[in-house]
Amino acid sequence: MMAADGGATVLENKDAPKMPEKKKTKFDVVIIGAGPSGYTAGIYCSRAGYDTLILSGILPGGQLVNTTEVENYPGFENGIMGPDLMIEMRKQTQRMGTTIIDDEVVNVDFRHKPFKVLTASEEYEGRAVIIATGANPRKLGLEGEQTFGGKGVSYCATCDGPFFRNQELVVVGGGDSAIEEATFLTKFASTVHLVHRRDELRASKIMQERALNNNKIKFHWDSEITDIKGDQKMRQAVIKNLKTGEEKILDAGGLFVAIGHEPNTKLFTNQIDLDEDGYIVLKNKTHTNIEGVFAAGDVHDRTYRQAITAAGFGCMAAIDVDKYLTENS
Q: pTM above 0.85?
């Protein structure tokens, strides 16, 4: 049959099986991770006109998913719950046109271009890659730690310290991070109990002196936390002396664990340069040692570890990607 304009009319066979749409696997930019850095990078890359994919992992949102109220992220006069902030970031990123797939990356190949990023079910290709997999705080491994997470137990004094004004607090650790957190918390707490497994601190000398001379910090040497108790919130910490076996109960409204972080970089071993602690080594700005592979957020930042700085690094990585792709188009 001929159409009125002279073209052929194709009769649709309604009984013909519909072929499934082929899944898109090739992108300009592949972002691994979906915390503040990953979402921000997605926003900037998509707005710059690049076909962008975020592989968020099994639990998108990073550490903020396990955070209660966030008071120090600009734009929210009355604060915002951590999970809600991540939902808003995700929606904004999707509105910009970024493809977000909640799947976990199991392997990468940065040896050849385009770069390959593999999940258990699919292989994706990207002309550029941004690693934004973040870092996780080391935990004590106590049941109460999970029970009272966000209800007294914290891993960031800068984030949560102001919520504990005029309360007794506990800090676990003996390195620079622990001493820095304990000293910071004295601005708010009535007393800070520092619990350390050894009989001397590992922190730098000047930080030790500041802490030892601070009459708000009380030291518990050769000790560890064995239990965390409470009702709706944490109320007590049980401390055990490792030499004598003696246990005592501290009434405390909060416990801050400061025994280090573990960057989520095992996936990239032998692919890019990592330092002795597993953090990504940046060659220049957000560039890794592999041209076209970039990093953003806590995966390389061992100093600030804030949502706002992670978002800033995501912006920087996206701008660096834009320059790289423009120069290598």
A: no
